[in-house]
Write a structure and sequence with these properties.
Largest sheet: 7 strands, mixed
Bound molecules: hexanedioic acid, magnesium ion
CATH architecture: Alpha-Beta Complex
CATH class: Alpha Beta
Helix content: 25-40%
Low-confidence stretches: none
Number of strands: 12
Strand content: 25-35%
Structural class: alpha+beta
Mean pLDDT: 96
Shape: globular
Radius of gyration: 17 Å
Number of domains: 1
CATH superfamily: Fumarylacetoacetase-like, C-terminal domain
Number of helices: 7
CATH topology: Fumarylacetoacetate hydrolase, domain 2
Distance between the termini: 51 Å
Length: about 260
Amino acid sequence: MSGPDVAGIAAKLGAAADSATAIGQLAAETGLDSDTAYAVQEALVRRRLDRGERLVGLKMGLTSRAKMAQVGVDEVIWGRLTDVMRVPDGGSVDTGGFIHPRVEPEVAFLLDRLPEPGELVGSFTEAVRAVAPAIELIDSRYANFTFSLPDVIADNTSAAAFTVGPWSPVPDGLDNLGVLLEIDGRVAQVGSTAAILGDPRRALDEGLRLAGRHGVRLREGWLFLAGAATAAVPLRPGAHVRAVVEKLGTASLRALP
Ligand code: 0L1
Ligand code: MG
């Protein structure tokens, strides 16, 4: 019996992203399960690499209750980041290139010496060279931002763009820092890094474990987005977005009018 058409599903998702046109969910009709969905994700990102993009890191998704509740999926997932997704801090994005973009405040890690496959992080300060406030721009390729677990995994966990603020040395504690998402100078979301798996440092072990199951090794020099501390907020044309993380500072981006 043949399984789901991995390349065909990746092609549909890739075309949806390229044309900024929403599509219907695919998992139920194709019998896609979560493991095969990661193969679709790999094929989807391979399309980007084949046109010259570079893999620069990994992101964790749904690492907080607020995020899980927002989309009705309650498992931690991971996706892949490429260089073209990166927007410089203070830079601009064109919302016309996305379907229904949302932004969320995150914490980013710059990876250093990582444990061997199958091992957990022994010393966080050895594994992580620096930390930064970040903004993730997510854009589900599915209509109405509605999907099942395999659907969202296949869709590279809605990854679309991200901005990383200034790097700082790893502070003593990361587990209860205040987080703000501001849109046009107004507070849109308030949270704490504690919402990210209790402590964003745990997200790295989860990333190593979950990506390791699919034979993916994190690399020195890669970025790692640990996940959002709050629900995501729609990004409107012309909006100015700031993510502020206590002790770490601010990352910002602007949507073109
Ligand atoms: O980064 C995230 O937490 C997004 C994961 C996928 C679910 C969504 O699109 O919100
Ligand atoms: Mg995110």
